[in-house]
Amino acid sequence: MNARTNNHHLPPLQYTWSFHSGSSGKTYTEHKIQGEAIVFVSKGAIRITWAETEEYIHASELCIIPSENKYTWTCIEDSILICSQFNYDLFYEGSHPTDRLAPLSEIAPPSKALICKKTVVSFFSLMEEYIHSKIMDNKLSKLKVQELIHLLFKTCSDEELTCLFSPVTGKDLQFKKFIINNYSGVKSVKELAELANYSTSGFIKKFQQNFNESPYRWMQNQKSKMILADIKSKSIPLKEIAMKYDFYSYPHFCKFCKTHFGYTPSEIINNKMI
Question: Which of 49, 108, 125, 225 is the most exposed, fewest CB within 10 Å of its CB?
C-alpha cells in the first residue's frame, strides 16, 4: 500500500500491530490477511470494503475483518488507523462468555462498526505509542489483543458484541467453540465428525460454512502451528515431539517440517527460520 506505514513485522500467523496514515480522497489496499484484522480509526473517517461488505468508520470506531480477505479503505478525510492481526482461536480462549452473543437473526441490520467507549479509545492511544517505540514482539502483541477483547466484553452491550464479532464467530458459535475445544484431541476429520455427532459429509459441509476451508486443511494448519510452537520452545526433545504428533518415524517428522516450514526441526531450533 502507498500509505505511510510503521509496522513491526513478525512471522506469518503471528500477532501484529501497525500504524497507518492516509490522505483525503486516497484509496489504499491491504494484502490478503492470514488472520482476523482489527481496524480502529484514530482520526478522520474512512470507507472500508472487503468481500461483499462495505462500512463507513469514523474516529473512535472500529471493525473486525475475517481472515483470508483483502480489504480496501478510502479516506473520506485525512485519517489515521491502528490495526492488528490475530488468530480467531484467541476469541474462544479464557472465560469470554460467548453466550452473550445473540443469534444474528435477532439483530437487523447488523452493523459491523463499533463506537468505542472512552476506555477503549485510551487503549488505542497507548497502542500508537507502543507501535512507534518499536517494542512490540509477538508475546506483547498477543497480550494486547487479549486485553482489547477483555475491554470490549467489559464495555459493550450484548448487541454491540454480536455485531462486532459476527465476521469472526459466524452464525454458529457453539459449533465453532466445539471445534476449538476438541480438535487437538482427535487424529482425523472422521473422528472429529463422530465426536460432534455428524456424518462425515455433513460435518465437512457445516465446517466449510463456518471456517471457509476444509476441515482437513484447517486441522493440518493447526497441527503445524502447535508443532512449530513446541519446536521453538526448546523444552521438548525433537524425537518426543515427533512421537507426540504420531509421526511414524523421525525422518517423516523432518520431512513434514521441511515441507510446511521450509526448514528441518534442527534448523528451526538453531534460529535459521525467520
Answer: 108
